[in-house]
Specification:
homodimer; 353 residues; alpha+beta; 60s Ribosomal Protein L30, Chain: A; Phosphoribosyl-aminoimidazole Synthetase, Chain A, domain 2; seven-stranded mixed sheet; 14 strands; 23% strand; Hydrogenase expression/formation protein HypE (chains A, B); HypE (chains A, B)
Chain lengths: 353, 353
Amino acid sequence: MNTVKPGYVRPLDLRNGRVDLGFGAGGRAMAQLISELFARAFANDYLARGDDGAVLPAPAAGERLVMATDAHVVSPLFFPGGDIGSLSVHGTVNDLAVMGARPLYLAASFILEEGYALAELARIVDSMAAAARAAGVVVVTGDTKVVEQGKGDGVFITTTGVGALPAGRDPGGARARPGDAVLLSGRIGDHGMAIMAQRESLAFDSEIVSDSAALNGLVEALYAAVPAEAVRVLRDPTRGGLATTLNEIATQSGVGMELDEAAIPVSPQVHAACELLGLDPLYVANEGKLVVLCAPEHAEAALAALHAHPLGAEAARIGAATADPQHFVQIRTGFGGRRMVDWLAGEQLPRIC
Amino acid sequence: MNTVKPGYVRPLDLRNGRVDLGFGAGGRAMAQLISELFARAFANDYLARGDDGAVLPAPAAGERLVMATDAHVVSPLFFPGGDIGSLSVHGTVNDLAVMGARPLYLAASFILEEGYALAELARIVDSMAAAARAAGVVVVTGDTKVVEQGKGDGVFITTTGVGALPAGRDPGGARARPGDAVLLSGRIGDHGMAIMAQRESLAFDSEIVSDSAALNGLVEALYAAVPAEAVRVLRDPTRGGLATTLNEIATQSGVGMELDEAAIPVSPQVHAACELLGLDPLYVANEGKLVVLCAPEHAEAALAALHAHPLGAEAARIGAATADPQHFVQIRTGFGGRRMVDWLAGEQLPRIC
């Protein structure tokens, strides 16, 4: 992101102005958008250099790099509990955190639709900057493109993160073993149902608020409490929900899973909204929840560490990995029955993140 | 990019199939798209791990990290000399190269429009994989989202790159000094006019072909020939063209520039197409050209190194940085006159990259 500001020009009209194609053309208007909007919000020395990329200190000796990317196309752009700006920070920070990494740097790339209000763009960028500060990451470089009206949808944001993976940490989807405890950091379905309730204009006694949050602090609290080796798998159950995440892990690790339905926290509002729309909360996206597969002998310490963190107050032990050559995920229902929990098939909630 | 393949399902129809919203929903269809299309084309151990990010070796001791990102929204998606896939690799590889870095890793994020033909997507992904192999970079992680028909435009691709910056190298837009030679690696305007000719269905005696190419090899050849300290500024003149790039450098470094119009290579076809469309080649985008500002005592060695590389065969010394408190870029015309070369104002060629 070139942050050079050209000589004197009239300031951008951030109150009533709109995105036009010139903002993506690489000339004076783009330089102005970047210096007056992006560079101001994300202010840091890396961006201020004004070059085509950022020069960054390498991780400490013995640490590996972790890299993750996420495109964000959520609709609507603003929702209870967040917006595409904060979501685009949380999504990528969480991808790094569940690799066991300490998130360090973000790159942000914007695809703007011609005609979008600059005032709304500024709100999104400010929200993104606040989320980055809260998560302890720095937006070090970026890019902006503009597409014609009807060829985009307001704002799409791709964020890419780089983090440092401390020696000894190596969680991965393929590392679960039969007997591992399955922990979940809180109730499921809040993000997906917050978006759906807004799209469908559903009104409930109390509003459903997205759980969108950065999980890196929670992951650090976990690693502080148990040996790194005991943390087998970390995942954030986003698109496809808890059900799909657990199926992925089962397939990757070659294990089965047995879950206890009664142990999985779901809020009454999400439960009601899901009933109304014919959805199963197990398949609804979350943006601030952590799934941990942990060696059983350390499961209680891990759960206590989650409980002690604000984002894990409602954490629960929801089941265990099993030896199952068919890698099935099964759930014990309230009536003593048992049902299969398959991958999400087809498309349940488009553009949820 | 989770590359886990779920249990047996019918293979994707890569000949006649189309993108549907399910491919972005996080379930079985998305897992299939990723394993059968992306992971197959980009095959490497980082992707094969199937986690939410990639774990990568850190740069060697003493090297710094460089990070750059670019969204690609070029229209049309296929053009003479390339397509959005190869372009998305070259764009980010070049951003790293002009920071002086050796490009190592790419993250790729796709925003697909519902209904887009899978066969075309496969062509794009294969082209991307070939360009990455040729440039010596590895696509280590990725993400896919799908938007409804009419909310996107086929395919948008954001690539983010990480590279290693060897000790001693520190080119930057603010480092030019009066007297520095301005070198250009070849003729300008080919990329932008290849796109425009296709959009406007212009026919010329010989087709205009995009110069889209990875510049990291050329940059390494330059550093092999002159002391790192002598390389003051590297830039690839993309959106806004050579004129805007030189204005950016002039502003960042607080210098002026004097160029020699006759020394700037432009092909006859690009010249003719620009005349026809009322465009100035100085403002037309390039995707495989390098601008070097170099200490004058090393300029001839630098130019010889460019000439010796296939991408620099037509390299030329086009002018010099000057002491000018107003940071003007001026050009000596063929008739002994002199004109100002300003920043690109407004929008000349939308969606050129």
